[in-house]
Design brief:
Elements lengths: L2 H7 L2 E5 L15 E6 L11 E5 L5 E10 L2 E5 L7 E5 L3 E10 L2 E4 L3 H12 L1 H22 L2
Antiparallel strand pairs: 1-2, 2-7, 3-4, 3-7, 4-5, 5-6, 7-8
Length: 146
């Protein structure tokens, strides 16, 4: 049973994520995310974190950074590149809470709202940092042969 099928029979889903795309908010194998099923006629908002079925078949959980006419532009909090033109029908769940370092947070919490506004405002700086970090890792591998 996949995420979408589970949410078709259960209204919420709680699980550990895999990957680094939502760091520092969500760390794989430590933190939990709590999702609810997106209603068919529901239009999500800028800065919502939502799960969608990507064109390559993967399920991704990233933040909406732009509303498009027929969908959204997404960006992982720890990623440099935006995912544009994600259609409304690809999106099937929205984050309503998460457990970070053992403490549960709601997406309605003021602290959470401050976090995502500041985090996104720093995107240009984060973009440069993430690109430089990736370059440094590739250079180190090339120099050490690993």
């Amino acid at each position: 049973m996949n995420f979408k099928e589970y949410l078709d029979t259960h209204e919420t889903l709680t699980f550990n994520t895999k990957g680094i795309s939502m760091l520092p908010m969500i760390k794989q194998d430590r933190d939990l995310v709590i999702l609810r099923k997106k209603q068919p006629d529901e239009r999500l908002k800028k800065y919502d974190v939502a799960m969608y079925h990507a064109r390559d078949g993967r399920y991704l959980l990233h933040r909406i950074i732009k509303l498009e006419e027929c969908g959204y532009t997404f960006l992982g909090d720890n990623l440099p590149n935006k995912e544009r033109h994600i259609r409304e029908e690809q999106v099937f769940a929205v984050l309503i809470g998460f457990v970070h370092k053992g403490k549960q947070y709601s997406t309605d919490d003021t602290g959470y709202k401050v976090y995502y506004h500041v985090h996104y405002a720093l995107y240009p700086i984060r973009f440069i940092y993430i690109k430089l970090r990736g370059f440094a890792v590739k250079l180190k591998r090339k120099l050490t042969g690993s």
